[in-house]
Amino acid sequence: MNISKEQSKDLSTIIKIEVAPDDYRPRVEEVIRKYQRTAQIPGFRPGKVPVGMIKKQYGRSVLLEELNSLTSNALYQFIADNKIDVIGNPLPTKSEKEMILEDGESFELLFEVGMAPQIEVNVTSKDKLPYYIIKVDDKMVDDDMADLRRRHGKFSSPEISSESNVLYGDFEELDETGNPKAEGNKTTTTLSIEMVKDAIEKNRFVGLKKGDTVTLNPMKVFGNEAEVSAILKLEKGSPSMHSDYLFTVKTINQIDAAELNQELFDKVYGEGIVNSEEEFRTKIKEGIASYFERESDKKLRKDLKNYLLSRMEIPLPDDFLKRMIRANMKEDEQVSDQEFEHQYFHMAEDLRWDLIRNQVAKMNSLEVTAEEITNMAAAMVRQQLAQYGMYDIEESRMKQITDDYINKEGNAGRLEKSILDDKVFRQLKSQLKLDVDELNYADFTAKLMEKTQHEMEHHH
Question: Which end of the chain has fewer CB atoms within 10 angstroms, the N or the C?
């Protein structure tokens, strides 16, 4: 077999594979012999079917299958051996030499491959980007403290409701006449009386017993689309969010906030870590700041990506990539030329960012270990199990669940990419000059919602 790189243009190249009969014949004959041993053809005992008959019936399909396997393996080996940095998948292209699919023939197969451009990523302290941090105020600390006290408080079920109770019951959508709506929305959920702002409306939920009912319009009572969407378990914008509902009390729950004492401190942070209310507030503030730092980094990641993509000219084999994508699209995935160009723009952006990320990783010897992948997978699994109240899992069982998650198709690659993305971001963040700007939460949220000119032009 002879393999050669024929020509290069516009970041794509043609690889020619010449296959002689001696290259494929041993493999084809081996498969034919297997067919002969197992074929069941009327008039012949198993294993006694003439080879000529097997070749006549299966020869072409076996030859085609073996040629595909042989050339595919040879192509990827050639790419690896010659360190050709490719983008996308090889695209078969027509040879000038006519291909006759018969045993004993020689074959010439051509493949076009896209090549990655050589790039340099230079980020220094001369590169300046804003870094927004959120000011942690006393109200945030107070709110988090109150939430922790509730979560670790004492639970009880009083017979009659009061303002501090949480009601658990059924919501049933009503029609214009005040009767249950046929095929209307029904859900069972909680309703916190404290969330009702209007004093008159709030008073309607005080003094209720199990089985009592209240007719209400959730949007008028709560006035917040996000809260009503969560309570009624509906998509935002659903017409059913504006209906009247009949709420039937099933249980009344009371949570008495935990005392601010050593027992609470130990429950939240571990024994002896926090020993006073002042230290408790400090620890809460640090936790909020740590969460907000992740939000600040999320904003910086977006700004950094836009900054580098707009500053760096990174050519791609666009013509090749478009033909490759079109060739691999299923019939039901085909779109208009305008929509395809829009999709390709974002695909190309992602490819350019992958090139930047990989180059930064290479320049700084950033690698991902198997242990890091396992640790990240274990953390994700623990977090998911915790959502179902499963905290104390045996280590052997935990290891099995984690291994199963990693071995599920595609997960190991996604985890590796996520870890490498984070390492590259940390590296670039350390090289940048950050223009730190402290904002209150509302102003920070507004910054997150801002769209760049680039986004306004290319996102819809």
Answer: C
71, with CB counted inside 10 A (0-12, 13-18, 19+), is buried
CATH class of 277-458: mainly alpha
What's the confidence (pLDDT) of residue 351?
A: 94
- Rounded Cα–Cα distance for residues 198 and 54 (Å): 85
Rounded to whole angstroms, what are the CA distances from 412 to 299, 351, 380, 399, 405?
Answer: 26, 20, 13, 15, 8
Q: Where along the chain do its domains lie?
A: 2-115, 154-256, 277-458
Superfamily of domain 2-115: Trigger factor ribosome-binding domain (3.30.70.1050)
Residue 151 has a pLDDT of 85
pLDDT at 414: 94
pLDDT at 456: 57
User: Is the separation of the CB atoms in 277 and 149 below 8 Å?
Assistant: no
**What's at 312, amino acid-wise?**
M
DSSP string across 219-276 = HHHH--HHHHHHHHT--TT-GGGGS-EEEEEEEEEEEEPPPSSHHHHHHHH-TTT--S
8 A C-beta contact, residue 247 and residue 214: yes
Residue 222: is it exposed, middle or buried by C-beta count within 10 angstroms (0-12/13-18/19+)? buried
pLDDT of residue 454: 54
pLDDT value at residue 457: 57
Structure tokens belonging to residue 394: 């045996």
Query: Do 154-256 and 277-458 come out as alike in CATH topology?
Result: no
Neighbours of 221 (CB within 10 A): 23
Handedness of CA 173, 176, 181, 184 (dihedral sign): negative
The residue among 97, 95, 100, 102 whose CA lies nearest residue 25 is: 102
E-assigned strand segments in 119-165: 128-134, 154-156
* pLDDT computed for residue 125 by the predictor: 93
Write out residues in the chain with pLDDT < 70, as ranges. Answer: 389, 452-460
Q: Note the pTM of the prediction, 2 decimals.
A: 0.69
Instruction: Say if CB 354 and CB 86 are below 8 A apart.
Output: no
Beta-bridge partner residues of 132: 437
Q: How far apart are CA 300 and CA 80, in angstroms?
A: 36
CATH class of 154-256: alpha beta
Task: Choose among 297, 259, 288: nearest CA to 424.
Answer: 297
